[in-house]
Amino acid sequence: MQSIIGKAWVAKGYVMSFDMILQRFWTAPVDPAENAKWVMAGVDEAFNREDGFKNMGYTFIVAGHNFAGGGKSIEHCITGLMGAGIQAVFATSFARLQFRNAINYGLPFITCKDMNLHCETGDELAYDPATGTIENRTRGTRFQSVPQAPFVAEVAAAGGLMNFIRQRISDGSVATLR
Amino acid sequence: MGMTITEKIMASNSGRESVVPGQLVWADIHTVMTMDYLGKQTFRAFESLGAKQLFDKNRVICVSDHLVPPPTPEFATMLNEWRDVVHRYEIPHFYDLGRQGIAHQLMVEQGHVLPGRISIGTDSHANTYGAVGAVGNAVGVSDAAVAMATGKLWFRVPESVRFHVTGTWQPWVMAKDLSLHIMGMMHWNGHLIYKTLEFGGPAIEALGMAGRMTLCNMTVDLGAKNGIISPDAITQAYLSGRTEDVWSPLASDADAPYDAVYEVDVTNLGPMLSRPDKLDDTAPVEALAGTPFNKAFVGTCTNGRTEDFAIMASILRGRQVRRGVNLLCIPASTDVYLECLREGYVEALVAAGAAFETSSCGPCAGIHTGVAGDGDVILSAGNRNMKGRMGSRHAQIYLTSPAVVAASCITGVITDPRSDDWT
Contact A166/B50, CB-based, under 8 Å? Predict the structure, then answer.
């Protein structure tokens, strides 16, 4: 598996799910292209325009505690980030509802302690999914993330939880899941 | 090595003798709840899986709570589409306008959750179900669809954190105050994220089901996976007549491993508030006494139960809500509404100048029935106070207990309910 290379946006405070997807979009269809248009609109005024976040061209988000917190279960937070080109999020901790959604959609939410304190927005990062190492090429620093559980990789390889289950319903093996 | 109550539930519902924190299991789901706001999406996701039928239509619980009565033509249409889906699947347990309530209240009150079993819902406050000793878990649309098709869902067995709560509850101090106290004590620093919060000890055993529901409800706002209280005689009495399903008592083992154990003594706990925008920015009522506000709200899956309106009525009966303050009350379910009518709480509160609305989530999620406008300062017994939660992003929300709301409505400023004996 090749390293993913790209620019990071670094959060300065809590990033809340309510601000990632504003209320008027909560009942919109789950669609990465559509959800990406206004994703992160409430997080920073600079993103509060159509394609505001997407046009910044970030590949990664680096954040502190409780990323995507606030208790929304809406999957638009994840599909919006994916549609905007985000390929991994690194945070000290993730809010569990969106952590779960990220696993179910195959977007890597990677726990990496306090990395946000040592990165700035615009830094170029290289993430190696095989080893979990993250290199900050702008600053010449490296971070080791917490490895993902095998199940998470299995779901991602299947193209997400829905596909994972579709395959097992179709071949009859769903009953064996334990 | 012993197991905690949540570990036991994860083990017994996944066909295992034992589990350990961090383990991944596919566990059987007792009930799946979905509601008007996300329900159509949930059924559409279910249909895309290729399953021939629902795992058990008696165990898919459908509720109209976020959008009723619909405030706009768009929401009315969404609600009609939702009703069409529910009728197409011939769902027996459909709680719609007229027999409605907030999903989490109904799940517990109507006996759809059971001690020792796992129930999920497509709304975050599904943690409420822990009040009867169930694992209640909030999930996204995909997870609910998978459970509706297979009767199962994946879980990572959480580490358990125990709050051992002792002491004597002071008058006018409620479970909500303990919730906010714990919020301020633990913050969103990541320590409680993904974990089970288990509440036990004499001060928890002294709580009725309403207080237990408040406490478990807000564990999602602490970042936890679930909150849980071992079933006891109070649980037994509450569930009797609400469910025919059989359940067995269960509790954590004495030697169960905990990630942390916190001791809390409620004897010195007073009324608490959370300042606008950040839930974990809490303060005792003394620190905020005298703060003016113009709107007040009691309702929601956190504090919309009979006991909540009872304490308000005991403060406001024969008194008046100050002019310039709008107090809105929304019972959490039709049964709660009827009970409050029978007990005279509605009459006492309406006579005092409170407005009552039919059961729904109301303005808690900023959708309808008294949403916040620019410049509003709201004293709310709900569960969240981030910017824009109740409507305008230029409103401020103080979270607190129904007792603080009631006492403050008389004066128009934040007031300690212990300042009077309200006789």
Answer: yes
Residues B226, B347: one domain?
Answer: no
Instruction: Show the domain range for B406.
Output: 272-419
Do A178 and B15 count as a contact with CB atoms less than 8 A apart? Answer: yes
Task: Please state, in angstroms and as integers, the Cα–Cα distance from residue A138 to each residue in A89, A109, A132, B129, B347, following that order.
Answer: 18, 22, 18, 48, 67
Q: Which chain A positions have a beta carbon within 8 Å of B138's beta carbon?
A: 71, 73, 97
For residues A25 and A95, state if they share a domain. yes
Chain-chain contact of A96 with B389 (C-beta, under 8 angstroms): no
Q: What is the pLDDT of residue B25?
A: 97
pLDDT for A51-93, tens place per residue?
A: 999 999 999 999 999 999 988 899 999 999 999 999 999 999 9
Residue linked to tokens 């969103």? B188
Residues A107 and A125 in one domain: yes
Residues of A whose CB is below 8 A from B71: none
A73 CB near a chain B CB, below 8 Å?
Answer: yes
Q: Do A72 and B124 touch (CB under 8 A)?
A: yes
Residue numbers of B between 312 and 371 with CB closer than 8 Å to A: 365-367
Same domain, A160 and A119: no
CA distance B9 to B41: 29
User: Based on the structure, what is the number of domains in chain B?
Assistant: 2
pLDDT digits (tens, 9 = 90+) for B120-165: 999 999 999 999 999 999 999 999 999 999 999 999 999 999 999 9
Residue B187 has a pLDDT of 87
User: Chain A interface, mutation test: which of B80, B222, B386, most A Cβ atoms within 10 Å?
Assistant: B386
Residue ranges in chain A modelled with pLDDT below 50: none
CATH number at residue A136: 3.20.19.10
Its pTM stands at: 0.96
Nearest alpha-carbon partner for B409 in B297, B306, B307, B310? B297
What is the extent of the structural domain holding A157? 148-178
Which tokens sit at B372? 């916040």
Residue A90 and residue A157 in one domain:
no
The per-residue pLDDT for range B297-325, each reduced to its tens digit, is 999 999 999 999 999 999 999 999 999 99
For residue A170, which residues of chain B lie inside 8 Å, CB to CB? 50
Look at the block and give the residue holding tokens 């030697």: B255
Closest C-alpha to B305, from B394, B386, B217: B217
Q: Measuring CA to CA, which residue among B360, B364, B410, B355 is closest to residue B389?
A: B364
Among A16, A26, A104, select the one facing B143 at the smallest CB separation: A104
